[in-house]
Amino acid sequence: MNIVCLASDPAIDAYLKPLHNSHNLTIYHVQNLSPKEVIEKVADAEVLITGPEVTILRRELLLKLPSLKLLSVLTIGTDWLDLDYCREKGIVVSNIHGATAESVAEHTWAMILNLAKRVNEFDREARLNSAYNFSLYKGKEIYGKTLGVLGLGSIGSQVVRIAKCFNMRILGINKSQKPMLGVELVDKITLLKESDVITICIPLNSKTENYISSEEIELVKHGVIIVNCAREKIVNKMALLEGIKSGKIFGYGVETPIMQVIDQNDEYYKYPNIIVVPHNAFNTEDADAKTYNLVVENIEAFNIGKPQNVV
Questions:
Q1: Which of 65, 90, 172, 296 is 20 to 30 A away from residue 241, measured at CA?
Q2: What are the coiled-coil residue ranges (predicted)?
Q3: What is the 3-state secondary structure (H, E, C) of the chain?
Q4: CATH code assigned at 293
């Protein structure tokens, strides 16, 4: 098969070497390409390996790739590509389900603990303004509190595993309603009302955009910590900021879109109890190895007529 890889990370090369043995593989180290630049490199590809840091795969672009049979994406989420078009045209989309779950779960917990203990906040003020008065930076314990996990998939389940070390009561929403050991499956309202910490582990789609908005913020406990390492748009930004301003939300951790600059005048930056970074939760050496190995497995499975991790 004619395979083209558009990726920003040169480390991918070593992992894709097995594909050279039986396929025509071309690798480009690129990011933020225009549709025209993508078409120039990928026009004859049967298989495309790429991610959203390279380009957004809209219908107009995909129409110009007539040979494409498999889209092997370097992400779990697919909100950056036209999945409907791929299904219409029979283009198989395989993702890296599970490959980054541990890294994202650990990152989620890094944000939870950072916000609870106000680590970034005190560090920043000590560096910039010589802050030293600990009484101004009182935090919260996590042990024995209630955690609400929105989404119990590969990432949410790992967040749950770590939470058990803190002897937490764990509430969860699971689309499949499949039971999970140590988790009380509840409805959305119950989770919002009873959780001390809420983590968002669901994909972004038309049903989950603004899944947490003003009505939901009204329901949460005073002093709740919310962490969103999924997609920024799942939480309505204005509603969230109102919750921060009022003091109802103790702290918020969020990742904004990958490889996009956060404006220095962004509202997030006005509040010391918000941690905001461009999407980076997945970004570990360990997750890279799992991701790139799984890409190879996905392509070889497709090649023998047994596609896997199909979205």
A1: 172
A2: none
A3: CEEEEEECCCCHHHHHHHHHCCCEEEEEECCCCCHHHHHHHHCCCCEEEECCCCCCECHHHHCCCCCCCEEEECCCCCCCECHHHHHHHCCEEECCCCCCHHHHHHHHHHHHHHHHHCHHHHHHHHHHHCCCCHHHCCCCCCCCCEEEEECCCHHHHHHHHHHHHHCCEEEEECCCCCCCCCCEECCHHHHHHHCCEEEECCCCCCCCCCCECHHHHHHCCCCEEEEECCCHHHECHHHHHHHHHHCCEEEEEEEECCCCCCCCCCHHHHCCCEEEEECCCCCCHHHHHHHHHHHHHHHHHHHCCCCCCEC
A4: 3.40.50.720
